[in-house]
Write a structure and sequence with these properties.
- This protein is of the alpha/beta class.
- The chain is 34% helix and 24% strand.
- It contains 13 helices and twelve strands.
- Helix 12 (272-285) links the parallel strand 9 (261-266) and strand 10 (292-297).
- The longest helix has 14 residues, at 272-285.
- It is globular.
């Protein structure tokens, strides 16, 4: 039913006799399908056996997405109905095309690559944020946690792009986004920090790459960092797809002082011992609660693990820890 109004879609669903378990919809004009209350009533009454729900909507007219009514609609997608079904809302901004998309998906472990490998998930005891979300939904004695995801895509950033992003400031402030994924070639650090500070409810951050950061920009003469960090930052999961230099790691650690899980994709030319030493010393010095470190590196092997283990033991960087190589990942877990 391409380009059907929602009321027509409801009539169509009411004529189905077989129970529907999977529903996938793509829509490209108007926001007729973006009312969570309408969806909730339809699912409860017409398709109560629905298990998998994938909805995707694209629009190039952004004028309707900065008002309070739209923000209220997004927030309603975090009600107990959506959490119980383990479906989350995603709001995406494509800067190159000056367009946006809204979607609803089942909970997926898209943030933490370790869950793509069953052995790695078992090694980490399924204890990280995405699994915590799912465990909470399966245990009524625990608080149910909503997920609202923000995705920002761009091939590059210039002054015009920053002006376009400013149009969504009210959305960033009004919607309690919990996840942020930035796919951009070297987003300007100033813009990156401003976005993070506007999103006070974030618990997970994934960024494809950052601009090169000079060490003299990071640290002032008195040893303090030169950028402000929100003391209310809730970000515990951080994933950096492409690491260029150590300053980027330094930047992310101090931007996210509550970090518990840190995944970094590094090149085979990176000095692995220097990187691990730096991360662990920073975590110890500034009391970061870093529990899991995942280093994704091509051709990771046991020899690398043994060298890191010797480094940690010799320099007493950690007391209780486990380290293991699985696939192209070196996993370090501290107790």
């Amino acid at each position: 039913m391409y380009e059907a109004w929602f009321d027509d879609f409801v009539i169509f669903m009411s004529k189905l006799f077989a129970p529907v378990h999977v529903l996938r919809i793509k829509y490209h004009t108007g926001s007729d399908y973006l009312d969570p209350n309408d969806w909730e009533q339809l699912i409860k009454i017409r398709i109560p056996y629905l298990l998998t729900f994938d909805y995707e909507y694209h629009d190039k007219d952004i004028t309707d997405y900065a008002d309070d009514d739209f923000h209220t609609k997004i927030n309603r997608f975090t009600s107990q109905f959506w959490i119980k079904h383990q479906w989350f809302f995603e709001f995406g901004i494509n800067i190159d095309e000056e367009s946006l998309h809204c979607s609803i998906h089942p909970y997926r472990n898209i943030w933490l690559d370790i869950y793509k490998h069953s052995e790695i998930a078992k090694y980490f005891n399924k204890n990280l944020s995405d699994n915590i979300h799912q465990e909470h939904t399966n245990n009524s004695s625990l608080a149910l946690l909503p997920i609202i995801q923000l995705c920002i895509n761009s091939s590059s950033f210039d002054e015009q792009d920053q002006l376009f992003m400013n149009k969504f400031k009210s959305t960033f402030l009004s919607v309690p986004f919990t996840r942020l994924k930035i796919s951009c070639e070297a987003i300007p650090i100033g813009m990156f920090v401003r976005i993070i500070h506007l999103l006070s409810n974030l618990d997970s951050l994934k960024v494809s790459s950052l601009s090169c950061i000079e060490s003299d920009w990071l640290v002032k003469s008195d040893g303090e960092t030169s950028f402000s960090t929100s003391i209310n930052s809730k970000i515990t999961n951080v994933n950096l797809d492409e690491m260029i230099n150590m300053e980027q790691v330094h930047f992310l650690l101090h931007l996210c002082p509550c970090i518990q899980y840190f995944q970094v994709n590094i090149s085979k030319h990176m000095n692995l011992k220097m990187l691990v030493r730096f991360i662990l010393i920073q975590a110890s010095t500034y009391n970061f609660d870093l529990r899991f470190l995942c280093l994704s590196i091509q051709n990771a092997n046991e020899d690398m693990v043994q060298k890191l283990q010797k480094l940690i033991d010799t320099e007493k960087l950690l007391s209780n820890y486990m380290i293991k190589c699985i696939g192209n990942h070196i996993l370090l877990k501290s107790d």
